[in-house]
Recover the amino acids of this structure.
């Protein structure tokens, strides 16, 4: 099934003409999860032709502006464009008041329900689960409460054998829930002939913003892809600790110890004009490191 | 003295890749006033190489998001970039809480003082006055409390006669406050020989968002430039009234009756792909009409 990550923004703190703040869109079987939402994210979604009305869940890691200032605009635009489908928001508690005071000031009653789910500040738990994916939070070490998110595709899922379905003109909705299928000749086709268990379950861990934190290693171990912030290069480790951030070395060591397949880095300090400096440093410790840049798409089915 | 307006955004409601929401920067003798602040305004300021640290006053007409969602990001970036000069904000009362809950959520204590001035909702008064300019509000007719702003250059100002100053090597700070000047030979040079009263006093009226409102005509009469929203074309007058907006005809009639020199229109509904439709309509009623578009600069000294 589709499991695809689009980078909408990957820069830190202060946006500029060519540097968008953190936001990512994860497509899990055509359910869309927005992860963080820096200022101007709604325009980034348009730029990459991603319908923001299809977003069902928004997860905000923490309440520094570069991770959420775009949310109220997105919520408002969804409303103005006639959305009626509910939107689930997972964030720390103060965001609820931040949204409410703004809707109240503009005398706005949203056309659609907003379901607010408060992120725990001292607990790690499953936030969401459906047939395809389970999402849980894990605690990070930043200057304010900050949460990482872990997305795991579920093993109960089955994969359609498309050839067989086409042959018998069976539409996918008829083989849901592991049911066998009665065809037009009243022959029973066993579900196992139509589907097979997925052997390659995708997983994605999102870590922004945090100091180096070894306790997350077992939580995210063996994920396909780890996004880990790398605000600073290795030489600025003291500045990283002071400001609650990580260096390239920190991120790469987490990736290595957790035995992840790919490491994506981002949330770069503005001081780095050439991001390859960060990439090369990261690769010294974990070779399968990649820079994120606006517009990048990582399709988990291709690796 | 400089009196120059830069359009940072001139579209309504929902931002897109090439449509920025309302924001304007008025330079009055190198004091910078930001008028409204839609999402992404800080990036627009950067795009047009306008230092946002030089902004001393922000005026927010009303609390619909397309007029202020960019403010919290601007305030935060000013802080992160080390501002220590105070910032004055003129807005309706709820904005104070909106800013405070967001600063509180991120545990931010600004490096600089924020002076919040509450706009009256049933009164029209002088909001600000210095040696150069007087700014007052006037009430508009929108779906929520909304304020227009009138900028008038002050008649007490004097203009330097630059040739004379250069000849005597007199620096401008020595001839302030109408003082005569004692030169190196102890000769007294009368101030009237160094300066002359400005005969052409600039003025600017800003009206967004509002239904047609004839009572503003005497307030803004004879201004050099009127910016008046024209969300809709004439045929959608009922939609305009319903949503608290104006048509091209409304704006042009206000301009005509108020005997302004130039009319700038903006805040266009997204339905207009070709804005010349709106311009041509406006010109039917008031010939000296101009479209605003992002990046436009209107230098009041040139007309």
């Amino acid at each position: 099934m589709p499991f695809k990550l689009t980078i909408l923004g990957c820069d830190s703190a202060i946006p500029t003409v060519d540097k968008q703040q953190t936001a990512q869109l994860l497509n899990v079987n055509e359910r869309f999860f927005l992860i963080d939402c820096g200022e101007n994210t709604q325009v980034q979604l348009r730029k990459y032709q991603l319908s923001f009305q299809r977003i069902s869940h928004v997860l905000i890691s923490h309440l520094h502006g570069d991770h959420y200032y775009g949310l109220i605009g997105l919520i408002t635009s969804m409303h103005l464009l006639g959305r009626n489908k509910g939107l689930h928001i997972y964030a720390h508690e103060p965001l609820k008041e931040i949204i409410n005071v703004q809707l109240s000031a503009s005398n706005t009653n949203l056309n659609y329900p907003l379901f607010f789910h408060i992120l725990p500040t001292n607990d790690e738990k499953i936030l969401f689960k459906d047939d395809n994916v389970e999402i849980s939070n894990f605690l990070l070490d930043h200057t304010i409460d900050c949460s990482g998110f872990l997305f795991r595709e579920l093993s109960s899922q089955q994969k359609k054998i498309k050839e067989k379905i086409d042959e018998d003109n069976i539409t996918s909705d008829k083989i849901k829930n592991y049911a066998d299928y009665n065809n037009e000749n009243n022959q029973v086709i066993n579900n196992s002939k139509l589907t097979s268990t997925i052997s390659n379950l995708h997983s994605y861990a999102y870590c922004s913003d945090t100091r180096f934190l070894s306790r997350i290693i077992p939580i995210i171990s063996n994920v396909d892809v780890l996004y880990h912030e790398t605000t600073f290069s290795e030489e600025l480790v003291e500045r990283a600790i002071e400001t609650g951030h990580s260096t390239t070395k920190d991120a790469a060591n987490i990736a290595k110890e957790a035995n992840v397949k790919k490491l994506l880095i981002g949330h770069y300090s503005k001081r780095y004009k050439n991001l390859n400096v960060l990439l090369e440093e990261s690769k010294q410790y974990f070779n399968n490191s990649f820079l994120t840049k606006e517009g990048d798409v990582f399709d988990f089915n291709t690796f």
In short: Residues 3-157+198-302 of chain A form a domain with the Metallo-beta-lactamase; Chain A fold (CATH 3.60.15.10).
